């Protein structure tokens, strides 16, 4: 079917994306749980990450949109079952608990998987689970059941506590599952609990120093959610793509559900679901100037003017697709935390600074908690950026207060982008 549709300028597409992500609205005077719920509902997902040089990544999207709010509010939403932890695409994330039925088909696919065979397309688990379960199903076929029984009897526990024999490999020991990489060199009990988590038998009851604590799903998730009717795979995929389209506002098929898209799906499935949403009038085919691929606009998305001021987490859903970020904002962005120090250009934990509807700078930030200071050793302006010194200073003061820091220190060099 020939598509194409109306022409949309890149500027309008960028405003559509920003409005869909909640940047078109003024921040409230005093943000509370209602505002945070609106943020989560709009984004659909808060990505988790272990880096804490500034603040854990799941807290930043709320601050970017509503300003100073209590991080304890988000913690309570998790503790009270409003949010649950699972994988959005391949990313460990917090999701609204109403979305639990949308991922149960993936859990069932993990349960059905035979590990002596290649993973089915719908089985989305860490590679360490695939390789580890392949080995454990032969070497220790009873381990998963032993781990599950230990948690059922003992209550919430970490992977190490769930080990039935307490035996742990040393770092110097050879990796029993070659090819997983050093960061995935998991203990056997860790492979077992992660499999059970992916299969929905265990859920994340909390974290200790960012280490997952596992418990039976029925002891973590609300009964009403667990008893909710299960969706078919087709129904769930349709709703997942619908959610992605609503969250993004405007996107290509690849950005919606390609291999590195907002919610990856097999190509044939993605085409079918997008076609159904187009036929139903929920997705509108459009042509974005300069973009060769067919784009789609969410039917109720708006391109009203945006007057935002925000520092963005590297894991913010607005910018986590780096190719889309470059296309909409003319902003080439890569996270630097995995880059050797000598090769870093803009700093270590670099946050893009959004002013109006443009990304105007990159700000390297660190929370020096010992000295109660927000440090910004490097600020890099984008070529042709307007003067942003005052709005950036105001945003940094707001962030420092939000983090409970007394001072802002920006003594470092100020570099001009190239």
Distance between the termini: 43 Å
The overall pLDDT, averaged over residues, is 92
Number of helices: 15
> What is the 3D shape?
globular
SSE ordering? EHHEHHEEHHHHEEHHHEHHEEEHEEEHEE
- Percent helix among the residues? 25-40%
Residue runs with pLDDT of under 50 for 5 or more positions: 413-418
Structural class: alpha+beta
The strand count comes to 15
Q: How would the blueprint of this fold be written?
A:
Elements: E1 6-8, H1 10-20, H2 33-43, E2 46-47, H3 60-66, H4 71-79, E3 83-88, E4 91-96, H5 100-112, H6 127-139, H7 143-154, H8 188-198, E5 202-208, E6 211-216, H9 217-220, H10 223-227, H11 233-248, E7 250-252, H12 253-257, H13 267-279, E8 283-288, E9 295-298, E10 308-311, H14 322-329, E11 350-356, E12 358-368, E13 373-381, H15 389-402, E14 407-409, E15 414-416
Helix pairs in contact: 2-3, 5-11, 6-8, 7-8, 11-13
Q: What key phrases describe this protein's structure?
A:
4-stranded mixed β-sheet, alpha+beta, 19% strand, 15 helices, 418 residues, 6-stranded mixed β-sheet, single chain, 36% helix
Short description:
The chain has 418 residues and is an alpha+beta fold.
Give your account of this protein's structure.
By secondary structure, the chain is of the alpha+beta class. Helix content is 36%, strand content 19%. Strands 10, 11, 12, 13, 14 and 15 form a 6-stranded mixed β-sheet that branches. The longest helix is centred in the middle third of the chain and has 16 residues, at 233-248. The protein is globular, with a radius of gyration of 22 Å. Mean pLDDT is 92; it is low at 413-418.
């Amino acid at each position: 079917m020939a598509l194409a549709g109306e022409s949309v300028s890149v500027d309008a597409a960028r405003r559509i994306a920003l409005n869909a992500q909640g940047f078109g609205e003024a921040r409230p005077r005093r943000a509370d749980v209602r505002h945070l719920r609106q943020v989560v509902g709009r984004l659909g997902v808060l990505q988790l990450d272990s880096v804490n040089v500034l603040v854990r990544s799941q807290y930043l999207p709320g601050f970017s949109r509503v300003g100073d709010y209590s991080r304890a509010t988000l913690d309570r939403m998790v503790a009270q079952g409003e949010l649950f932890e699972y994988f959005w695409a391949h990313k460990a994330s917090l999701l609204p608990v109403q979305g639990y039925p949308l991922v149960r088909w993936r859990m069932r696919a993990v349960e059905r998987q035979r590990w002596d065979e290649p993973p089915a397309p719908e089985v989305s688990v860490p590679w360490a689970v695939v390789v580890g379960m392949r080995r454990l199903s032969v070497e220790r076929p009873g381990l998963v059941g032993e781990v599950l029984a230990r948690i059922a009897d003992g209550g919430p526990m970490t992977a190490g506590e769930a080990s039935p024999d307490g035996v742990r490999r040393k770092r110097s020991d050879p990796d029993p599952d070659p090819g997983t990489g050093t960061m995935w060199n998991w203990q056997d009990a860790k492979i077992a609990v992660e499999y059970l988590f992916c299969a929905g038998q265990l859920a994340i009851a909390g974290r200790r120093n960012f280490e997952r604590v596992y418990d039976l799903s029925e002891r973590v998730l609300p009964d009403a959610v667990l008893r909710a009717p299960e969706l078919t795979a087709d129904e769930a995929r349709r709703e997942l793509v619908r959610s992605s389209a609503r969250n993004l506002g405007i996107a290509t098929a690849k950005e919606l559900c390609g291999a590195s898209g907002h919610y990856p799906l097999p190509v044939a499935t993605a085409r079918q679901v997008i076609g159904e949403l187009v036929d139903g009038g929920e997705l509108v085919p459009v042509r974005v100037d300069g973009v060769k691929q067919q784009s789609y606009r969410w039917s109720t998305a708006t391109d009203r003017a945006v007057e935002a001021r925000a520092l963005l987490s590297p894991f913010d859903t607005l910018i986590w697709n780096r190719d889309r970020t470059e296309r909409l904002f003319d902003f080439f962005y890569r996270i630097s935390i995995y880059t050797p120090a000598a090769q870093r250009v803009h700093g270590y934990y670099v946050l893009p600074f959004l002013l109006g509807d443009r990304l105007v700078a990159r700000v390297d930030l660190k929370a020096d908690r010992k000295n109660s200071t927000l440090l910004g050793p490097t600020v890099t302006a984008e070529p042709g950026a307007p003067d942003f010194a005052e709005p950036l200073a105001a945003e940094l003061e707001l962030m420092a207060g939000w983090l409970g820091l007394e001072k802002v220190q920006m003594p470092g060099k100020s570099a001009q982008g190239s």
